[in-house]
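#struct-pred

JT: dropping the chains for the assembly here, can someone run the whole complex?
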Amino acid sequence: KAGVTQTPRYLIKTRGQQVTLSCSPISGHRSVSWYQQTPGQGLQFLFEYFSETQRNKGNFPGRFSGRQFSNSRSEMNVSTLELGDSALYLCASSTNRGGVNSPLHFGNGTRLTVT
Amino acid sequence: AQRVTQPEKLLSVFKGAPVELKCNYSYSGSPELFWYVQYSRQRLQLLLRHISRESIKGFTADLNKGETSFHLKKPFAQEEDSAMYYCALSGSSNTGKLIFGQGTTLQVKP
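RK: done, full complex below.
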């Protein structure tokens, strides 16, 4: 099986712009979660989508949004970019069978730099 | 508040020495605990989870609810164990939301 694929791998944007990141989960995985990784804050949960519905949300401002398509692929969008949004954005997919926490399978991430 | 604390940023040991990576958590309930590992130039991946009670690559971790700890142990470190290790907590089942610790870099010297 192909692993979790994130595109693009690198992005450079300027303050005020918006950006869209894409994630293709492992085939058969219906849950997609997004994390922000920075040296100062570590790995922080952004949100999770399951069957096209947002199931969980972290403590990030409304500028961060996401969606999931019927084929389980997911996108996250950040509007009005700030310098502090520079980070590695990780996507993870899982099967999440009922009642059991299935392992998260992570992608390689998208490195976003805001100048 | 839910929190995971890994007190050591870096742990350096010699090959063959015992290893213990510390993890303490704060959660008012029955959490599920995990250890994730990231080897150089590889993706973050699950190492083990407390509900499985298994040993992976010689590593074990026991959930101590009294001390709210989930330390990762290995009796004899190998050079290939060098990596970044993250302890993570889930407050409910069937979710992709994990609370991660800051991570500990394990360096195993020859």
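JT: nice. The longest strand of chain B covers residues 83-90. The interface with chain A takes residues 32, 34, 36, 43-46, 49, 51, 86, 90, 93-103 of chain B (CB under 8 Å).
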